[in-house]
Design brief:
heterodimer; A: 253 residues; alpha/beta; 2 domains; four-stranded antiparallel β-sheet; 23% strand; B: 328 residues; binds adenosine-5'-triphosphate; binds magnesium ion; branched-chain amino acid transmembrane transporter activity (chain B); LivM-like (chain B); transmembrane (chain B); membrane (chain B); transmembrane helix (chain B)
């Protein structure tokens, strides 16, 4: 084997919408097993950065490497199959499917079994068990057979996570997984994240500083599309620039 | 008896129950045999219904399950119809092989068309499907040396089914043949929609944006179902040719493409039998109304369509199913 490659690496990513520069020269590395937070004020370009990394948008310049292999031009689907998965800030679910169906769908896609039209769904027994196990882990077992659209918002957020976990990611990008979720529930959600296998690299966007400081081993601060600072939580906490542009405004800490 | 504490639904059991044959389904297939004994005068209408229902089911697979709105599916119906007619005119009147070849030919065209279909969405998609249909229609119209143009193909000869069942004047053999094909088509479609592939089609319909994010090659799925659907529509067209001994240009018409969508919406999309029920209602209504009032019968279809869309957004069968579920 080669020397240990970072699970994810971006090199000088740039993206503009017209004259608005939303991503400026973003370079960072996410090592295996990382628990990194990506923070920054509203409109800083956090979601756009994730869109670039996962291939939903193409960067104007720069490179993206997954496990040392370049994926800058690869379609989203191919990146997911190489272990790069994200969740969405705004629920992007299947309203009419039940959670068990949605997660089973993700697992069948991962196992390349989704194209088998001659084999009955019920015969995928191992996959069904795995789906139910994931839903149980996210405390969704009781609503596993209810249409997604009828679930309360908080449970839909959990399902958003469940779908991502079903792809068995090596790199997991979470875009405000707990957005709009009551504080006690969001703590439960982050304890699931904390309990993920140690070799999964996680990058999460989160506005709640208590959560950021208790779950992140390292923090990337994004301001106006550029990386202002990347450092340990203690350093970020004490940095005057961060206080000014971000923490000061929000009023936490 | 002790009262059990409510337990979590067993996911295996829940999924199995969704794909099981229901009593209504079995009752439907038993009832489908009635025209043989009770309404012999309606046998020709019954086989028209069975053929059109197969066509409607093929549209349901792409429109109802995968959410691909098409206004051009008559293209495949017509291609199947003409292929079957031409094969027979070329001297091979054996119905089963003719049916299969016609279906495969329509499927081949469907596969080629699917490369464009999966790259467009919304209004553009509808227009592309419509465009394909118009194109094929005019092509068939102008190639009258092959297709007979506006006169259509006459005197198509079809040999007895399996060498035994001669196509009779009453239409016993024709209905038996069409019904068997519809049954087979439904069994196959059932298999498809209750597979993992069927689940991914519903995923595409529900939220195509999420599909790549869970690693899905959804365009591949769409191409596959579009091709399967084209084969099925082509078979329906071939059945029409073989049971009526003629092929006319209107097998390829926009009207046919639109009618089948109306039938599907009437019955309810995404439930297979909705396509069948919608076809029965549409065709029986047409038969009855056009006797009374030949010029204006679309008025009533229009009215029915609006009532259903406004009051029963899931279609007639969908609403009935919902009522039944509320009961228990
Ligand atoms: N598709 C787009 N076209 C044009 N401008 C866009 C597009 N997507 C995002 N933007 C703009 O880019 C900037 C960054 O948006 P982005 O959603 O990445 O911010 P964010 O950091 O995720 O914010 P939030 O914390 O509110 O989620 C914003 O000014 C936004 O209006
Ligand atoms: Mg955002």
């Amino acid at each position: 084997m080669e020397t240990q490659q970072p699970a994810l690496r971006t090199e000088a990513l740039c993206k503009s919408f017209g004259s608005l520069k939303v991503t400026r020269d973003v370079t960072f590395e996410l090592p295996r097993g990382a628990r990194y937070a990506l923070i920054g004020p509203n409109g800083a370009g956090k979601t756009t950065l994730i869109n670039l990394i996962t291939g939903e948008m193409r960067p104007d310049s720069g490179r993206i490497l997954l496990d040392g292999r370049e994926v800058t031009q690869a379609p989203t689907m191919a990146r997911v199959r190489q272990g790069l998965t994200r969740t969405f800030q705004i629920n992007t679910l299947f309203p009419d499917l039940t959670p068990i169906e949605a997660v089973l769908l993700a697992i069948c896609e991962r196992d390349r079994a989704a194209g088998q039209f001659w084999r009955s769904l019920t015969s995928h027994r191992v996959a069904i068990d795995e789906s139910f196990e994931i839903l149980t882990r996210l405390r969704l077992a009781e609503v596993a057979t209810r249409p997604t659209r009828t679930l309360p918002y908080g449970q839909q957020r959990l399902l958003e996570m469940a779908l991502a976990l079903a792809t068995k990611p090596k790199v997991l990008l979470l875009d405000e997984p707990a957005a709009g979720v009551p504080k006690d529930e969001s703590a439960a959600l982050f304890s699931v994240i904390a309990a993920l296998p140690g070799d999964i690299a996680v990058l999460f966007i989160e506005h709640d500083m208590d959560i950021v400081f208790s779950f992140a081993s390292r923090i990337i601060v994004l301001v106006s599309g550029g990386v202002l600072l990347e450092a340990e939580p203690a350093v970020v906490r004490g940095d005057p620039r961060v206080r000014e542009v971000y923490l000061g405004k929000v009023g936490h800490v | 008896m002790t009262v059990e504490a409510p337990t979590l639904a067993d996911p295996h059991d829940w999924l199995r129950r969704r794909s099981r044959w229901s009593v209504f389904e079995i009752a439907f297939w038993v009832a489908s045999l009635l025209p043989f004994f009770l309404f012999q005068t309606y046998l020709p209408l019954a086989s028209q219904i069975a053929i059109t229902a197969l066509f409607a089911v093929s549209v349901d697979l792409v429109l109802g399950y995968a959410g691909v709105v098409t206004l051009g599916h008559a293209m495949f119906f017509g291609l199947g119809a003409y292929s079957a007619g031409l094969i027979s005119k070329a001297g091979w009147g054996e119905p089963l092989t003719g049916l299969i070849i016609a279906g495969l030919f329509a499927g081949l065209v469907g596969y080629i068309a699917s490369f464009i279909i999966v790259r467009v969405q919304h209004l553009a998609l509808i227009m592309i499907t419509l465009g394909f249909c118009l194109l094929t229609y005019e092509l068939a119209n102008s190639m009258s040396w092959l297709t007979g143009g506006t006169d259509g193909l006459q005197g198509v000869e079809t040999w007895p089914i399996l060498g035994v069942f001669r196509f009779d004047l009453w239409g016993y053999a024709a209905y038996g043949y069409a019904l068997a094909a519809l049954f087979l088509g439904l069994v196959l479609s059932r298999r498809i929609v209750h597979s993992s592939f069927g689940l991914s089609l519903r995923g595409i319909r529900e939220n195509v944006r999420r599909m790549p994010a869970i690693g899905s090659d959804y365009r591949g799925h769409l191409q596959k179902i579009y091709t399967i659907s084209a084969v099925m529509a082509g078979c329906a067209g071939a059945l029409l040719t073989q049971t009526t001994d003629t092929v006319s240009l209107d097998t390829l018409s926009f009207q046919r493409s639109a009618d089948v969508v109306v039938m599907l919406v009437l019955g309810g999309t995404g439930r297979l039998y909705g396509a069948v029920v919608g076809t029965i209602i549409f065709m029986v209504a047409r038969d009855q109304l056009s006797d009374m009032n030949p010029q204006y019968w679309y008025f009533w279809i229009g009215l029915l369509l609006m009532v259903v869309v406004l009051l029963m957004p899931r279609g007639i069968l969908g609403s009935l199913a919902q009522l039944a579920r509320r009961r228990d």
